[in-house]
Amino acid sequence: MPPQDDDTLYCRRCRMPGTVDELDRMLWCDECKRAERRRAGWLGRALGFAAAIALSFWIAIVIQPSDQFLLLWALVVIVAFYLLSRLGQELLYGVFRIRNVPGARAGDQDEDRRAE
Ligand SMILES: [Zn+2]
What is the pTM of this model? Predict the structure, then answer.
């Protein structure tokens, strides 16, 4: 039996048709999830890097660590970079998924086509 049109779901981001198994519960396909994960990854790392630089300046200016603790503070900066990058990635990924800007744009195009 051929699949009925009524049962076909569409990715809410790229409007590609897919089945229940192919889309997640927010109706996104794997490719869209990967694309937004990549974008969130880069931006999250950039945020973590900026925060680590700011922390380094703060440590250098305010704390002024002695030579014997320099390695320990460097470790603090590295851990802060890692944690803030992860946090930024997860938060940004959530924001990208909720806002779904590419999907909203595709939705506008669908309505333009319907209006014609
Ligand atoms: Zn998609």
Answer: 0.81
Query: Which of the two residues, 4 and 51, has the higher pLDDT score?
Result: 51
Residue where the block lists tokens 């900026």: 50
Q: Residue 9, by phi and psi: left (phi above 0), alpha (psi -120 to 50) or beta? A: beta
Q: How many CB atoms lie within 10 A of CB 74?
A: 13
Beta-ladder partners of 25: none
Cα 17 from chain centre: 23
What are the domain boundaries of the chain? Answer: 5-100
Q: How far is the CA of 85 from the centre of ligand 1 (A)?
A: 25
**Residue pair 52/81 in contact by the 8 Å Cβ criterion:** yes
Tokens of 62: 């305010």
Residue 8 CA to ligand 1 centre (angstroms): 14
User: What is residue 64's predicted lDDT score, i.e. its pLDDT?
Assistant: 96
